[in-house]
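Late entry, evening session. Most of the bench is empty. Finally got around to the prediction I had been postponing all week. Sequence below, unchanged from the version circulated by S.P.
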Amino acid sequence: MTFFVSLISGIIIILGIIIGTQNGNTLVTFHLLKWKFEDISLTLLLIESLLFGIVIAVIVAGINQIKLRLQMRALKTKNRSLEKEIKAIKNMPFEEVEEEEEYVKEEKEEEYLQEKEEGEESE
């Protein structure tokens, strides 16, 4: 995909240069905001416009690149912390889990017995 975009961009630039050189002797008047530039070569104006567009594109791409790198750094940090958490869970002994399960079962049995006793008392 990138190849095709580059190819099309190159063709457009080459066509622009061809058109610009054919009209090389043409002098134009250029209005930029409040300023007026008279008798400027069309070729020079096209080349300056192209360079200005390239500079703007590089600035926008640079800002986007900085944002992406900051986002990537944050995601890498989060990924490292999650990997540490996974390793900690993997290294957790099973005996502790079994003890916790037994403790939870005992608590549930006690709650059940208390509910049963309360149910008998209310009858």
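Two things to note before I forget:
Strands lie at 27-32, 35-41.
The helical segments are 2-22, 42-90, 94-122.
Will write this up properly tomorrow.
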